[in-house]
Amino acid sequence: MDLGPHADFILASYAVYAVVLAALAAWLVYDGVHQQRLLDDLEARGATRRSRAGRAEKNTKP
Amino acid sequence: MAMSPFFTLLRRDITLALREGGAIGTALGFYLIVIAMLPLGLGPDLNLLSRIAPGLLWIALLLSALLSLGRMFETDHEDGSLELLAIGGTPLELVAAAKALAHWLTTGIPLALLAPLLGILLNLDLSAYGVLVLTMLVGTPAISFLGAIGAALTLRARRGGLLLALLILPLYVPTLIYGIQAISGALLAGQSFWPSFLILAALSLGSLVLGPLAAAAALRIQLQ
Amino acid sequence: MTNQSITQKLANPTRFMSLSGAILPWLAGLAVAVIVFGLYRGWTAPPDYQQGETIRIMYIHVPAAWLAMLGYALVAISSFGLLVFRHPLADVSAKAAAPIGAAFTLLALVTGSLWGKPMWGTYWVWDARLTSVLMLFFLYLGLMALRSSIEEETLAAKLTAVLALVGVIILPFIKISVEGLSVPWLGLEIPAWNTLHQPSSVFRSDGPKIHASQLYPLLYCALGFTLLFFALHMKGMRNEILRRRVKALRIAEVDRARAAEAAAPAE
Prior knowledge:
The complex is a heterotrimer of chains A (62), B (224) and C (267).
Chain A: H1 7-47, H2 50-58
Chain B: H1 4-20, H2 22-42, H3 46-69, H4 71-78, H5 81-87, H6 92-121, H7 129-153, H8 160-168, H9 173-187, H10 194-223
Helix pairs in contact in B: 1-6, 2-3, 2-6, 3-6, 3-7, 3-9, 6-7, 6-10, 7-8, 7-9, 7-10, 9-10
Chain C: H1 6-10, H2 13-44, H3 58-85, H4 90-120, H5 128-148, H6 153-179, E1 181-183, E2 188-190, H7 212-266
Antiparallel strand pairs in C: 1-2
């Protein structure tokens, strides 16, 4: 496909777009996995939902 | 009766600013230094300097006013008097308005009056002096009143001073644009002064409302 | 309690997690499909008679500019929800939307600059629309900087919300002062600060000026990237909720340890 005299600019803008969006998505996925692992660890250590049950009971959070 | 705490607070803040003198002196000195440095960076071409003088004077004024904004609520927050004011029944909106007005009277006006003097250094057209001071006097309330929002928001933030500049400078864009447009409107043939000047005045009036409201909201959140 | 509104139902983070967990893969898949379709249509359309092949940049530049504004609107609405209705998910939404909106704002600037080089001859011109997008980018930076510089999370959330609302009030004034404003039926004409940019060719009162062979691919791309924005936003919100759970569990753990320590000497 012939992109004419300005092919570099067209390809560069698509490349930047792809890189930024891919980086954003990758970071979000990584962060999700990371937080889920932390949560699983905590729950495995026995912090299981008790705090949240307690919070609902006491209703301290406004 | 409702206005009397406002004036008490205003008088107190002005007295404090005048007695210390440091804040006003620093702002004026900073303004002078920035303007004096600009030709060293841009070269001594008087034609170029006089052409861009209104813009340089406005931008340097913004930066100079920004220097003292961070102190607006800081000292009163540190010594606890801000909390007393909040408990004392004076609406925080009035407190914020009094402090912003005191900032304008002790920083905005002196800077605006110094501007034409600095205009000499930049070879500003003599006929522009009146217009320059007028637009700055009308435009600078927006700097103090919008600045109050930034000062209130960054009260408990780390790196408050730099953060304040980042938060507030974009909000000054309309004031800057119409302030400079009004001046060039008065100087250049075929352009008019009044539309830009009136928009500039309207922006300042709007900031008189928005500034205290938002600053008080930010203060209330932090004093809870 | 049967006729709760949707926002009330979603207010429960646990319910949001299960609902968004079910929706997210479909939303992300649909977004990618629509983007691929839109770009395919855009790239098979004939080149523009004036701009030639560079018109291909439009299919990503215009959606980015649109999402830059949508992102800020989303932050502002969420901030309003936090300050006025104290909606429990409002701050989660505002916090998740800011970096995504900032990313699309940056992409609008970069693609605009890369489109501008062949059209205007330089990468950056102080064109009115480009300048106002730059100011929008600064507003995003301010929001993120303020949030990151305040230790206490609820305090940071509320103060950032105040800044977002101030920003949304001032933003039209920034836009008008930079881009100008023309309201013919009022006789109102505020000139632009400076303009080289072509006027918006999609959203016009006299109908879109752009040719249909370009308009439809552009609309598909805009829809696709908007779906992608919401998928990313939903993922960001899920992560934020998990992060807050982790934090709450850690605090509870420390509290329990302290309580046990305090109880031990008494026995």
